[in-house]
Amino acid sequence: MTEQESKKIVEVNLPVLKKRTDSVLKGAGGFAVSTVKLPKAFWPVAQLLIRENNVSREELANSLDSLFDALYQHPLSEHSRSFTSYLRKYKLLPNEESTENLIRFLVKQVVARSPVEIPDVIVEEFWSFFQELISAPELKGLVELNLDIVRLVLRTYEPLLVELINKVKQIRKVNQIAVSDMMQKSQILRGDLRILKRQIKAIRYIKPFLQTDPKDFSAQAEIISKMVREFGPLFIKMAQVAAANADLLPEEIASELRVFQEDVDPMLPEDVMQAFMEVFGKSPQEIYFNFDIEKPLKSGSIGSVYLAKKPMIKNGVEVLVPVIVKVARHNLEREFQMGSLAIELMLMSSQYWAPHSKLLPFLSAMSEQIKEFTKGFEQELNFEDEAAIQRRFITRSQKSNVWHVPQLYFSSGRILEMEFLDDAMAIKQAINEHQGKNRNRFQRKVAENFLFTILEHLIIHQEFHGDLHPGNIMVDADAQLYLIDWGNAVDMNGKWALIWNYLTAVLAGDSDSLARVLIDMSTDPTANELRFDEIKKALDETLAKKQITPLDKRAIITLYREGQKGLHRRFQASLQLMSNTYQLGIVMQSDYLHLSRSIVAMAGTYLNMYDGVSKLTMAVDLLKDLSLFPANLIKDRVSLKGGEVRRMLSVGE
C-alpha cells in the first residue's frame, strides 16, 4: 500500500472514528451522570421512613412512582430494550413469530375442543382482530418489564407497607400487645407467599389439559376440577358462575362444575374452632348441642354450614331448636387478593412469552378488569354485610307466598346463625322426588315461581340476589322457593337507564351513543371522556365489521330487510362488544360486571329447571309467565292477606 493511499484512508476514517468516540464518551458520561443521580431518586422514600409523622398510602405511592420513573429513565433501561430486541431477533427470547405460533396453537386447541362447531368466519374475524392488535410493535426491555412486575407487587402491598412503616415509627410508644400485633402483620407476607405459591402452582394444570385428547371430556373435567380446588376460593367462585350456564358444555365438564355449586372441601376443624374463639371466646360445643365440627352439612367457597341445636324460649318454655350455623373460612380476603395478584402476574409475564406492544394495553385492561371483577366477590367475605342484605329480603319475603328467606338469629363478621328449613330441599333433589307427568308439572311450577320471584325483585324492589345458582335455591313440596346465601345483591337503582341506552345503542348501530354509555360504565369516565374520538372510531370499525349499519328514520324497513338473522346479529353484538373494552383500555365497573354475572346465573338456573322438558314448552311458559306477572303479583298479595284474615278468625274463635 502506498503512502498516498494510507493518508487517504486516514483522512476518510478520522471523522467517523471521532464521531463514534464522541458518541461512546457521551453515552458513558450520560450513564455515569444518571447513576450518580439515582441516590437522589431514593431520597423521597428515605424521607418518609425517617420523619416522625405517620406515612399515608398516597405519599408512599407518589414517592415510589417518582423512584420508578427515575429507574425507567436510566440509560440501562434503554440499552436493555435494544439488547432485548437483539435477543428476540435471533430467537434467543420469544418474539412476534413465537407469539403468533403460540396463539395459533391455542386457537387450534379451542376449535378442536369446542363441544359445538365454530364457524370459519368467527376464526377469520379473530385473526383479523389479532393482526390489527399487533400491527405496530414497540416492545419493552427485560429491565423495564422486571421493573413493571416489581412495581405491581409493591402496589399490591402498599397498604401493608404503610401500616408496617407507621408501626415502626410508633414502636417506642406502644406496649407489648402492639408489638405483637406488628409481628402478626409481618406474618401476613409469609402467609401470602404460601397462598400465592399454591395458586401459581395450580396454573400448571393448563399444560396437561392441552395435552389431553380434544374429545376426552372426562379427563379434561378431572383436570379442571383439580385446578379449581387447588387454586382456591376465587376459582371456585368462577366455577360456580360457569356452572350456572353450563348447558353448552360437555356433560362431563358441566357435572364437575356443578359439584362446586353443591359442595367443596370442608373447613378444617381447627379453623372452625378459631372462628368461634375469635367471635365468642368459646368452642361451638359450649354454645350448641350436636355440633359436629368435622361433619358440616354443606361447604362452599366462602365457608362451611353446620346443623346443630340451640336452647330457645318459645311460649315461655325452653326448647331445643334446630339451627343452621354458617362459619366463614379464615384469611379469605388474602385468598382473593393473592388470587387476583397471581392472575395479574401471569398476564404481566405473558409480555415476555408474547411480546407485542398492542397487547400491552389489552392485557393491562384485562388485568384491571379482573381486579374490578373480584370486588364483587370480596363483598361476600364479611357476614355482617350478608346479614344486612338477608334482613332486607326477609322483610320483603313476608309479603309473598311464593318465595321466602330464612330468619336470622345471630350475625357477626365470621359466623351466621339462622333458621333451619326442615321442609325444603335442593332443587335437583326436589324434582327427583317426582316421576312422569307429576315431575313435569312440578318443574314448570318451580320455574314459574322462580321467574315470578326474579321479576318481583327487579321491578318492585329494584334489587335482587347476586348469585342465584341452583345451590342457593331450596324448594318445598308446594314448589315454594327458599333463597339462601345472601352474600351478594345487585342494586338496580340508577342502572336501568344506562343498560337501556347500551342495548338501544348497539341495536341501532349508534357508535356515538354507545361510546358515551361505555364511558359512563367505566371506572374512570373522566379520563376516558378525553379519548372519546378514539373510542368512537374503534367502535365504528367494529360495528362495520359485524355488518351492523346505523338505523335512521327508515329503521323498521331496514330491520325488516335484515330479517331474523340481522336482528340476531345485532343482539349478539351487544354481548360481544364488551370484550372490545380491553382493546380500548376501558375497565368496566364491578357493578355492571356482576350484573351480567347474575343475569347469566339466573338464566342458566331457569334453563336447568326445564331439564327434560321441550324447548317449545319452555318458550310458551316464559311468554305466559311474563305477561301474567301483574295478575300473579296481585293474586299473591290477595292470597297472603286472605291467609292473615283466616288466622285472625281462628284465633278469635
Radius of gyration (CA) equals 31 Å
The count of helical stretches stands at 27
Main beta-sheet strand count, sense and barrel state: 5 strands, antiparallel
* Low-pLDDT residue spans: none
C-alpha end-to-end distance: 133 Å
Task: State the share of residues found in helices, binned by percent.
Answer: 55-70%
- Give the overall form: globular
Q: How many strand segments? A: 11
Strand content: 5-15%
Structural class computed from helices and strand pairing: alpha+beta
Overall pLDDT, averaged?
79
User: Strand sequence of the main sheet, in spatial order?
Assistant: 1-2-3-6-5
Task: Provide a concise account of the structure shown.
This protein has helices at 3-50, 57-73, 75-89, 96-113, 120-133, 142-156, 158-169, 176-202, 206-211, 217-231, 233-243, 251-262, 269-279, 332-353, 359-378, 383-397, 427-432, 436-461, 496-508, 511-521, 525-529, 532-545, 555-576, 580-584, 590-609, 615-627, 629-652; strands at residues 298-299, 303-314, 317-328, 403-404, 408-411, 415-419, 424-426, 463-465, 473-476, 481-483, 489-491. With 653 residues, the chain is an alpha+beta fold.
Topology:
Blueprint: H1 3-50, H2 57-73, H3 75-89, H4 96-113, H5 120-133, H6 142-156, H7 158-169, H8 176-202, H9 206-211, H10 217-231, H11 233-243, H12 251-262, H13 269-279, E1 298-299, E2 303-314, E3 317-328, H14 332-353, H15 359-378, H16 383-397, E4 403-404, E5 408-411, E6 415-419, E7 424-426, H17 427-432, H18 436-461, E8 463-465, E9 473-476, E10 481-483, E11 489-491, H19 496-508, H20 511-521, H21 525-529, H22 532-545, H23 555-576, H24 580-584, H25 590-609, H26 615-627, H27 629-652
Parallel strand pairs: 4-10
Antiparallel strand pairs: 1-2, 2-3, 3-6, 5-6, 7-9, 8-11, 9-10
Helix pairs in contact: 1-2, 2-6, 6-14, 7-8, 8-10, 8-14, 10-11, 10-12, 11-12, 14-15, 15-25, 18-26, 19-20, 19-23, 20-22
Protein name: AarF/UbiB family protein
GO molecular function: ATP binding; protein kinase activity
Pfam family, one: ABC1
